[in-house]
Amino acid sequence: MPRESHTQALLGPEVFKKVRETPILVVGAGGIGCELLKNLVLVGFANIEIIDLDTIDLSNLNRQFLFRKPDIKKSKSLVASASARHFNPDSGIKIHARHGNVKDSANDVEWIKGFGLVMNALDNREARSHVNRLCQAGGVPLIESGTAGYLGQVTPFVKDKTECFDCEPKPVAQKTYPVCTLRATPSEPIHCIVWAKSYLFGKLFGEDDEAGDEQELNQAKGEAENADEIDNLKKEAAAFREVRANIGDDDGPRKMFDKVFKDDINRLLAMDDLWNKEGRVKPTALDYEGIMSGSFPTPPLRAAPAAAASAPSANGSAATEPKSNGAAPAANVNSAQLRDQRELSLKENVELLIDSSRRLSARTISHPDTILSFDKDDEDTLDFVLATSNLRSAAYGIPQKTRFQVKEMAGNIIPAIATTNAIVAGFIVMSAIRLLSGQDEGMRKVYLKTEPVRPIAGYGPNTPNKFCGVCRDVYIPFKADVARVTVGTFVEDVVKGWLEEGLEGKGQVEWTVNEGSRMLADPDMEDLYEKTLEVMDVGRGKMITVSGEIKLGGEEEYKPLRPVHFCVCNPSPNAEAPYELPSTTPSIPLAPVKKVDKAPKADFEMLDNSAAATDGGKAAGKKRAAEDEPEGDAKRRKVQVLADDDDDDFEILDPKK
């Protein structure tokens, strides 16, 4: 009996026929993508294309079960497709695997229209938005998904029936710190980690960038830092070039230690004005010989509130007195304690700094054309950041962090859990079957939560946001020979001659034509009319956006129209005309105008990883209510946006009871 016979019996012949024949696109072959591909093969989906830009890393093997150790450095999509075929080898399943970027020009609107369903298993917001726009332009249903720890979501998006991925803005969780806080006056462990990862590592082993130094100084000036601090930054930049040049010498790491943790700190201590501000704590210069001999006393931790002094530390034990000689306390040298969970002594941090510096220096000498960058899965770079951030923390009286904590904070990691990926992948397939069955009215957003009473919750999708700049815009396929179509031809013939026929109402119209952030034409700009689209680098995969304003008869003011996006595609084979347009002109409605006197219903709160880990996803901001929800509905939906750069990064919508 064929493996998929049970699926056919459950779904019925008509739906199962769609499962077998509908072309499916899977975007992403990571944690969710591996589980999803396996599920699709087992259910019987027979026409699958999967695309992923990434290659397999050692850290992927604990949860991405289609990969093995010999596959490291190979294409995720290619290996995943080869492995998944073995789950159902005799079913006639075809998997077209591509190692590439979904944002490549070849992946245009005509390409996306070749699929009956798109499933996102992506790890970054920009790519998600790109696929969402493609699906809206091509009218292809999209199933979005994501996981973060024990949290997960699956959301179907269908053009004109549900909201789209971009109907609600996703705030950017990019935390920044003033230059001089990182370089001179850190007060938190994260300041020292960011300094070690983004500044010190780059200065010693990254690209030698004098322009970057100048930009950093300009940033410090813009942040109104005092003149002494800025002058200190200039001297430091010059001194680092000499240290960098000699880091490969036998005594290079030692000289680097003295420069960074002794000389630089002494120079800062000489700047009296720097320490006059309330709350700033003077650092202690570290002594190499004293630390290595055990005679150097560990600088005391800076004063903490009384409540925190007796609170449990990160490992659950009460806070202890500072170490007196640079040796680790007995609890930290317990052989049973995991290496990554153990706090290092000052001496161990110095030894790790010297050792990692030599390893990194050897790499730069053997491969001089390769620019090193921090990678949380690179032992050498992680060891360097661990040691230098802990030594800086010690100098400033800041609590040190374990290897695991530094990796988590430097990599901005929410741990990926294989079980969560598997559950979410299962819900994706269930959602796909529902869509193929024509049960649009039964579409559900599914949430995996950490609430014991209700770990899985499902809700009906919201309606489209009428102000959305993605799903409410107009999209037109524009098959063109860009070498023969000029900007002037596009404006005069396509926009003014063809597009204006679709206007709702007649009147005076003014058009502006852009490609991305570039303006190609407007009522007062015709300079580029003679240039072809090819010369302007407007080719396949690009979108030409036409924005218009219309003054209807009898009215004095112009009103904005919905933007129209012409999706540039390759011309049809043997086409004689320079371009092709749809047989009917689309309707172009007026754009809605927001009322400024009414408070918006969308209010977002960005939660960092620590908040997500401690509250189990309970904290959230408000989300735009569905139009049919009463204003006082106790089940008002909320949105939680988790900031995570891990393989399974996502925006998780978390509706509450």
TrEMBL record:
Classification via Gene3D superfamilies: Ubiquitin activating enzymes (Uba3). Chain: B, domain 2, Ubiquitin-activating enzyme E1, inactive adenylation domain, subdomain 1, Ubiquitin-like 2 activating enzyme e1b. Chain: B, domain 3
Pfam families, per the entry: ThiF, UBA_E1_SCCH
GO molecular function: ATP binding; metal ion binding; SUMO activating enzyme activity
Stretches with biased composition (Acidic residues): 643-657
Keyword annotations of the record: ATP-binding, Metal-binding, Nucleotide-binding, Ubl conjugation pathway, Zinc
List of residues binding Zn(2+): C164, C167, C468, C471
Disordered: region residues: 301-339, 606-657
UniProt family annotation: Belongs to the ubiquitin-activating E1 family.
Protein's name in the database: Ubiquitin-activating enzyme E1-like
Species the sequence originates in: Dioszegia hungarica
